[in-house]
Amino acid sequence: MRPLGIVRRIIPCLDVDADVVVKGVNFEGLRVMGDPVELASRYEEEGADEVFLLDITATIEGRKTFLKTVKNVAGAINIPLGVGGGIRSLEDADAAFKAGADKVSVNTAAVKNPELVTILSREYGAQSVVVAIDVRKRGDSWRVYVEGGKREVRLDGVEWARRAEELGAGELLVTSIDADGTGAGYDVNLYMAISEIVNVPIIASGGAGKVEHFAEVLRYVDAALAASVFHMELINIQRLKAYLMEAGIKVRI
Fold first, then answer.
1. Alpha-carbon distance 56 to 66, whole Å?
2. pLDDT of res. 17
């Protein structure tokens, strides 16, 4: 369990396909949710601590469109902006930072080339480098998936989290593909396991459906990321934070 005196963060995630926000279930069945600038602005007004923009197609062709979206969102909000999806090199990260990102997230590229995490950390500082880890439950453990959750690799999710910290990651964004978009709750056991072996901040992702789910997972992680419940206005961030404060979890109001 992470010390409850540390301020927890609430982070809306905008999965972007070209220039629109989309969302699915278990990384599939994507539906259009809205305009990224409008949604990011609304979330800042509601009290979000950060916003994450993830390019879910990340093709070379779509890269310029996505970077324009990053620039537009960064220009519309004052809270930190994390950017991920298709960042495979120092040049890709540099382009994201120049477009207005405060931190970058690497996933598939980190698995294929772990040294990239160290290079980015040295260049921009660990606080600006997030390693994203997508996992599925396999028996009593969690297996890492890459390429948007499409390909399983021979990596244990908890062990990879520990290794990512060693490589220089300043933060870990851990998503349960099994829970993603279901609204059935975060995989608390996953975050309990990771929190016991890493010291860097952990962002939990996948499964938020009601305010109680945030309270459950934020006892073991530093931030909770969610998408559908915010996009569909099922949960208001300001009211969520009031609930968390009443539950004894410190947040910025």
1. 10
2. 84
Backbone φ/ψ region at 71: left (φ over 0), alpha (ψ -120 to 50), beta: alpha
At residue 120, what is the residue type?
Answer: L
Indicate which residues carry an active-site annotation.
15, 134
**Identity of the amino acid at 163:** R
Segments of the chain with pLDDT less than 50: 59
CA distance 253 to 251: 6
3-state helix, strand, coil in the chain (%, to 5): 40, 30, 35
Return the closest-CA partner of residue 42 out of 87, 79, 71, 16: 79
The closest of 187, 247, 182 to 221, measured between CA atoms, is 187
Report the predicted TM-score, pTM, of the whole model to 2 decimal places: 0.94
Closest-CA residue to 182 (of 12, 58, 28, 8): 28
What's the pLDDT tens digit per position in 35-85? 999 999 999 999 999 999 999 876 455 577 789 999 999 999 999 999 998
Q: Is 2 exposed, middle or buried (0-12, 13-18, 19+ CB in 10 A)?
A: middle
What domains lie within the chain, and their CATH numbers?
9-246 (3.20.20.70)
State the residue for tokens 């600006």: 128
Question: For residue 23, what are the CA distances in angstroms to 28, 32, 113, 194?
Answer: 8, 7, 28, 26
Q: What is the pLDDT of residue 149?
A: 85
Q: Taking each helix axis from N to C terminus, what angle separates 90-99 and 115-124, rounded to the nearest 10 degrees?
A: 40
Integer Cα distance of 25 and 47 in angstroms: 26
Supply the pLDDT for residue 245.
Answer: 97
DSSP, collapsed to helix, strand or coil, labels residue 35 as coil
